[in-house]
Amino acid sequence: MKYLKYEFENQIATITINRPEVLNALNSGLVSELDSLIDRVIESRTRALVIVGEGKNFAAGADIVEMMDLNPAQARDFGFSPVYDRIEALPIPVFAVIRGFALGGGLELALACDFRILSTDAKLGLPEIKLGIMPGAGGTQRLPKLIGLGRAREMIFFGNIVDAQTALTWGLCERVVDGDPEEEAMSMAKKIVEKSPCAVEAAKKSINYGIDRDLASGLAYEAVVWGDLFSTSDQKEGMKAFHEKRKPQFTGK
Known about the structure:
Layout: E1 4-9, E2 12-17, H1 28-43, E3 48-53, E4 59-60, H2 64-67, H3 72-78, H4 81-89, E5 94-98, E6 101-103, H5 105-111, E7 115-119, E8 123-125, H6 139-147, H7 149-158, E9 161-163, H8 164-170, E10 175-177, H9 181-193, H10 197-210, H11 215-228, H12 233-243
Parallel strand pairs: 2-3, 3-5, 4-6, 5-7, 6-8, 7-10
Antiparallel strand pairs: 1-2, 8-9
Helix pairs in contact: 6-7, 10-11
């Protein structure tokens, strides 16, 4: 791969955006590689995915040079949303490790992840309005659900960039760490690997289903998915281990 690096160890996959010379700006080739790696993640026994940027930044938006002369049809084809949607739909938890800038399409990539773990120097924003466009890879949809309409409008309409502490206060990230945010994300991922893959997948499916629906529909879906877990070996093992006061050995079946 030209733009990404991939590692897999202890059932945790790591994808590294590897364009530090341009602050890890995203282009169509990079997103195409990301799409291919999602296939690899699905086919493997991956239990958690960590996405990180090489060097001092996560991803400073899309490559403007590549977009400058696009017409509307080309712009729609250039869009990153289909790949980001696949990341959000993965049955495993996905962590975005953010150092430095996560702007534009870079922040939209992070918004498609389940967790955003920040360093204290992180800067997050959707500055597309300053280029005569708007966020086009989920920013206008996912950001309001995380931080509320008012704050999302302020970030999008003004193109404001927020610091790590503001992101934490607003609910735009889950953790801000003084040390290495990748170590924190890996520590969290390792804890998830110890859990039942069946239960984690079911929980993520239920959350994603209910977020866009009314409470009654979400509750009905949750009840079905919860009940289905009682057909799994993981449920039998988890409850038996609890009863026997020992650590469960989950198999994902």
